[in-house]
Amino acid sequence: MESLLQKLAVDNGLVLSFAVVGAVVLCSGYISRKLTVGRVQGSAIAILLGLALAYVGGRMTGGNKGLADVTYFGGLALMGGNMLRDFAIVATAFEVQPAEARRAGWVGALALFIGTLLPFVIGVSFAYAFGYRDAVSLTTIGAGTVTYIVGPVTGSAIGASSEVITLSIAVGVFKAILVMVTTPLLAKFMRLGTPRSAMVFGGLAGTVSGVSAGLAATDRKLVPYGALVATFHTGVGCLVVPSLFFFAVRALFPAHA
Asked: Do the Cβ atoms of 159 and 180 come closer than 8 Å?
């Protein structure tokens, strides 16, 4: 019986993954309504539950893919992989109204610039405070603070060690989780209620996964606008961080370049 269930789980891994995620979302909605009286959005709770399950899966198997390392839940690796993630992001763009997107104007562009520069400066500062002095490591960790995609792209381009690249990814993932969880809690304070505000927020926050999940927990109609600008954020980071920003850091730390 056990072997039959395992075969069914392996052969229908993606279907089972959707069922598991649906069950987590259902439980999260119940917790949100009953335990927090709607004060904490169900999506934010679902994110935390997903992270907890990933931790449990990793501890059980000693793997690095979280719950996907458990045989029965191997389909989660496909569902949570780059292909379906990018497909979902691209699909959100079809809901964008061009007239609303144009309203962001120079404000959206400015938010995109600040959202790239400010996290990088913070990341470099923290890396320096923790003892890193060479320009390559400082730039790579700063790039990870921009997004967890910009970090490894930058590290590979400028010759960072695998340990530093891994650290940059970890920093970027932490930022994404922070944006996911705090966005619905701070939405009213940030006045996230219009497409323009969502685009500015997407430019400042940067991380596509964090912005998309956070806005989904706030108002799903805002997701396409925030994700649209956040996607450009990753592209801009991959262009300017390994080049202009790296040269700037190397100029500031010439003795350790």
From this structure: no
**3-state percent helix, strand, coil for the chain, nearest multiple of 5:** 85, 0, 15
Instruction: Write the pLDDT tens digit of every residue in 13-60.
Output: 777 788 888 888 899 888 888 887 766 667 678 878 887 888 888 788
State the pLDDT at residue 9.
Answer: 63
The span from the CA of 139 to the CA of 149, in Å, is 14
| Whole-number Å distance between alpha carbons of 11 and 160 | 40
Cβ contacts of residue 84 below 8 Å, gap of 6+? 78
pLDDT of residue 246: 93
Per-residue pLDDT, averaged over 106-134, amounts to 88
- Alpha-carbon torsion, ordered 94, 95, 99, 104, to 10 deg: -100
Instruction: Please state which of the ranges 43-47, 182-186, 203-207 shows the lowest mean pLDDT.
Output: 43-47
Could you give the 3-state DSSP secondary structure of residue 39? coil
For the record, the structure tokens of 247 come out as: 């040269």
Task: Say which residue, 103 or 235, is predicted with more confidence.
Answer: 235
Alpha-carbon distance of 52 to 219, in angstroms, equals 25
**pLDDT, position 145:** 92
Neighbours of 84 (CB within 10 A): 13
Contact 17, 75 (CB under 8 A): yes
For tokens 């400082």, what's the residue?
138
CB 143 within 8 A of CB 154: yes
How far is 50 from 170, CA to CA, in rounded Å? 17
Domain boundaries, the chain: 2-80, 95-256
